[in-house]
Amino acid sequence: MDYELSGAPGRPGPARDRAGHPGPGQPGGEWQDITLIFRQHHADLVRLALLLVSDRACAEDVVQDVFTRLCARRPVLDQDRALAYIRTAVLNGCRSVLRRRTLTRRIVTTRAVPWPGTQESAEDSAILAEDRRRVLAALAALPSRRREVLVLRFYLNLPVAEVAATLGISQGSVKSASARGLDALARRLGEER
Amino acid sequence: MTSIQDRLADAMGAAASTVREADLRPLAARPGRRQQAAWAAPVAAAAAVVLVIGLVVAASNGLFGTHQPAGPAPLPAAPHRFYLATDIGSFRTTVRSTATGKAVAVVPVPSVQAAGSVSPALATAGNGLFYIAASQRGVPGEQIWRFRVTPAGQVTGFGRVPGGVLRPGWTADALAASPDGSMLAVGAYYQRDHRYHGRLSGPERSDQLIVIHTGTSAQSRWRGGSLGGARYFRVASLSWTGDGRQLAVLGEWCRSAGSPGGEMCPAGQRQAQLRAIEPAGRTGGSILAGRLLLRQSPRIPFLAQALISPDGSTVTAMVLRGRTIGNPQISGIFPRELSVQQISVGTGRQLSVLFRRNLGDTSEVSGPMADPLAMTADATGRNLILNGGICNRGCTNEFNGWLHAGRLVPLPPSGFAHRETAETW
Fold first, then answer.
1. Which of B9, B305, B322, B352 sits between 20 and 30 A of B164, alpha carbons compared?
2. What pLDDT is attached to residue A126?
3. Do A43 and B20 touch (CB under 8 A)?
4. Rounded average pLDDT per 10-residue block, chain A, 193 residues
5. How many other CB atoms are found less than 10 A from the CB of residue A145?
6. Is the CB of residue B30 less than 8 Å away from at least one CB of chain A?
7. Quick one: B281 and B355 in the same domain?
8. For the complex shown, is ipTM > 0.90?
9. Kind of pairing, strands B284-286 and B218-223?
10. Quick check: is B399 in a domain?
11. In a domain, B109, yes or no
């Protein structure tokens, strides 16, 4: 059975940035409405999970689990923190997935290419796709904390303080994990930072 | 932003853009718990106790007409007490009990890098002698190591194989040792700096077969060449005859390569042949110059793995047929009906079918996998370990075990979603 909140997918959500921050004119009070959050952020959260688990189906499962639990428990969410709360739940779900399956860092970085190609065409597409795959594979090979920090910092463009709050670590830890993660990526990709 | 940050943001943005709202599944609810009356739980517990007592009494009185001891049916006796498994997910190689699956020893690969240090390449020469490929921090080129496993499962004599260093950038993906340990065959692929692999047309795009002559530390190098215009080559499996003269190489050739070594060959392009070469005293050559033992054909639509018997008379082949399944972007594509067959080298006829399995619908396969189907034999060639990592949603169709009378006796690690494993005994 499907929850009611999946029933109106056609309605476009209000403008928002990649991090899910409300766009201009979006009333903050709507955050507490799980239905609205689902409609507005389902895809964004799946994208976030995808970058962490490198697997579309698992990413969808993680986000589904989070919303399923939210629907079942109906927690009282602080309207300003609802999205952060859900995002943290997604991160935890991703960690559980990774813990269960212990991803193959080596394979990700070498033979198999878990990421689909882009829609670009011709030779540039092949080269760019290959380069992106290498970057994503190197990202997937990082320890989970560093990977999470890099995704939150450079995909969601969250400020350090918000990354720290989301992950429950200090801002100093965020900075060091970010620096080390970038260093590791640069080393793996044969690039000087 | 630095260049690496730019590249990271670009790559993440591209990956994320593949998720489109319209394609997402709607939220599916789990079945909710029914409302229970307050008295239901204690009554159910009491009923369960009564039922258990009744069953125990009934069993002790022989009411079920059986006097077998309780517990699961006993497993067949394993042909070897221990097997070795490299879990690429944890980068550890362990000696495990075949009966219980428990790790009894860890192979002490020294000073390895944290990731990418242990190759999915393990081999046995029999008599407790094993080989493994692993890289060492600060040392360019992967090294082949050897060690012994005692009858009690302990690892001794861990050391380098003479001449066992691969060229920088090359990584072992398949390994086979001649029975006397004088020659080691290594299927290797080039993994370093393939940022612009799409433009390379050189030998780096194909696997190489390297034979290490341990007595002289010399290496001979064998190439796949081009088969019917398919010039991307990779080594799928390696095995030696018992006299150590012939090395059977299962090669895959493809017209285009989605990744280094020609994996993820598009449907209809993959060609596979099992060829026997005689590396002793040779400096290298073309694998296609070797004797043809078996080839992919309408009768053998997908030759996934193939091992030659010690006497060289038969091939044990893992063959796939039927409807093609899989995800070409991720795991490659595979016909869904798997069988392990014994085939006569002399006549090409099928002698017997040792095992069958339906791989199921993996059209929504996910997860990184390189060699999702593997088959290993012991030195006798009779005892096989089969490993399948094709993974559907939820990864319920993976398998790992040793073959006994047409059935698979499970071996840990089970539930090894997305991990590549190498095993031998």
1. B305
2. 53
3. yes
4. 31 34 38 69 89 83 81 64 83 78 42 39 54 84 88 89 86 89 88 57
5. 16
6. yes
7. no
8. no
9. parallel
10. yes
11. yes
Question: Phi/psi at B203 (nearest 5 deg)?
Answer: -65, -15
B52 lies in some domain: no
Give the sheet arrangement for strand B155-165, strand by strand.
B118-126, B129-134, B143-149, B155-165
Q: Which of B11-15, B202-206, B269-273 has the lowest mean pLDDT?
A: B202-206
Whether residue B142 is found in the same domain as residue B82: yes
Q: Which two tokens stand for residue A121?
A: 């065409």
* The pLDDT of residue B46 is above 60: no
Domain range for B292: 202-296
pLDDT at B252 over 50: yes
Residues on chain B touching A72 (C-beta within 8 angstroms): 30, 32
The answer to whether the Cβ–Cβ distance between B369 and A107 falls below 8 Å is yes
C-beta of residue B363 within 8 angstroms of C-beta of residue B330: no
> Taking residues B198-225, what's their average pLDDT?
83
Q: Does A104 contact B88 at a Cβ distance shorter than 8 Å?
A: yes
- Whether this prediction's pTM lies above 0.95 is answered by no
Distance of alpha carbon B232 from alpha carbon B271, whole angstroms: 10
> Of B368, B416, B410, which Cα lies nearest the Cα of B263?
B368
Is some CB atom of chain A closer than 8 A to the CB atom of B132? no
Comparing B30-34, B273-277, B302-306, the range with the smallest average pLDDT is: B30-34
Domain limit, last residue, from B261, B296, B331 = B296
More confident residue, B127 or A22: B127
Per the structure, the count of domains in chain B is 3
Residues B251 and B218 in one domain: yes
B413 and B332 in a common domain: yes
Residue B59 lies in a domain: no
* Structure-token pair, residue B108: 């002490």
Confirm or reject contact between A45 and chain B (CB < 8 A). Answer: no
The answer, for B200 touching chain A at a CB cutoff of 8 Å, is no
Contact of B414 with chain A, judged by CB distance below 8 Å, is answered with no
B420 and B320 in one domain? yes
Q: Do B307 and B287 fall into the same domain?
A: no
Helices H / strands E in chain A, number of each:
8, 0
d(CA B404, CA B402) in angstroms, rounded, equals: 6
| CA–CA dist B307, B241 (Å, integer) | 9
Same structural domain, B156 and B278: no
The answer to whether the beta carbons of residues B31 and A49 sit under 8 Å apart is: no
Q: Which structure tokens are listed for B391? A: 């993974």
From chain A, pick out residues whose CB is under 8 angstroms from the CB of B27.
Answer: 2-3, 5-6, 38, 42, 64, 67-68, 71
